[in-house]
C-alpha cells in the first residue's frame, strides 16, 4: 500500500474530486481528515463510505476562507491524529460572469475560498511539517488559471494565484523535505461542471483532443502519485490533467 498509515487532510473531501482523492488514498492505507463546509447528512454519508475502507477517518466542518476556523480545525486534526503527512487543498468554488457583471461579493468569495483558503490551510500546517521534516502539499489549480477563460476572471485569477503560491512553498520548504505541487484539471464531470448547459458541455467535449470530459478518478490518480514517494523528486510543478485541452 502506497500510503499506509499516512494521515491526509483533504479540503472539500466529501464530494466531487476531493471525495475521489479521499477514497483512493483510503484504498492505499491512508487515514483521512476530510473537511466540508458543514457537517450535513450528505457529508456524513460520504464519510461513512470512506470509513468502510479506512475506519479511522473523520469529518471536520470548516469554512476555509475563515482563517480562525482554519486554525481551530487544523489544531483539532493534529490533536486527533497526532500528526499530518499530506495536505490536499482541493476546496473550490466558481461564480462565473463577464467582468462588469461579477459582483464584488463574487470576486471576494472566489478569491477567498480558492486562493486564501489554500494559503490559510498551508500556513496552519506548515510548522508541523517543518518540525517532522516531511510533508506533501497538493494544491488544486485549473487549466483556466494557466490559459484564462471568458466569464471566469475571478476564478482564473484565483487559480493562477494558486500556481504562484505552490512554487513559493516548494522553494521555501524544499530543504525541510516538504514537497508542494499543483494539479491543473481541465473539465471534470462533477457538480461544479454539472451547472453548465448540456449543449455547452457537449461542445466543450467535442473541442477536446480526447473528446470527452474527465472523471474525478483521473485527478485522484495523479494526486496519489504526488502524495506518494514515487514522486519524491518532484516539487514546484503544475501538472495538467485535461484531455489535451491546453495543447
Ligand atoms: P465540487 O463543486 O463538486 O466540490 C467542491 C468542494 O469544495 C465541496 O466538497 C465543497 O464542500 C468544498 N468547498 C467549497 N467551498 C468551501 C469552503 N468555503 N470551505 C471548505 N470547503 C469548501 O467541485 P469539484 O470537485 O469539481 O472541484 C474540486 C476542485 O477542483 C476545486 O478547487 C475546483 O476549482 C477544481 N477544479 C475542478 C474542475 C472541474 O472541471 N470540476 C476543473 C478545474 C479545477 P461542501 O460539500 O461542504 O460544499
Give me a quick take on this structure.
With 247 residues, this protein is α/β, with parallel strands linked by helices. It has helices at 16-27, 41-51, 67-81, 104-132, 143-147, 153-173, 191-194, 198-207, 216-227, and strands at residues 7-11, 31-36, 58-61, 86-89, 135-140, 178-185, 238-241.
Any overview of this molecule?
By secondary structure, this protein is α/β, with parallel strands linked by helices. The protein has a single domain (7-238), classed as 3-Layer(aba) Sandwich (Rossmann fold). It is 48% helix and 15% strand. The protein has helices spanning 16-27, 41-51, 67-81, 104-132, 143-147, 153-173, 191-194, 198-207, 216-227, and strands at residues 7-11, 31-36, 58-61, 86-89, 135-140, 178-185, 238-241. It has a 7-stranded parallel sheet with strand order 3-2-1-4-5-6-7, sandwiched between helices. Strand 2 (31-36), helix 2 (41-51) and strand 3 (58-61) form a beta-alpha-beta unit. Helix 3 packs parallel to helix 4 and helix 4 runs parallel beside helix 6 (153-173). The two termini are 34 Å apart. The mean pLDDT is 98. Bound molecules: NADPH dihydro-nicotinamide-adenine-dinucleotide phosphate. The site of NADPH dihydro-nicotinamide-adenine-dinucleotide phosphate has 29 residues, from helix 1, strand 2 and helix 7.
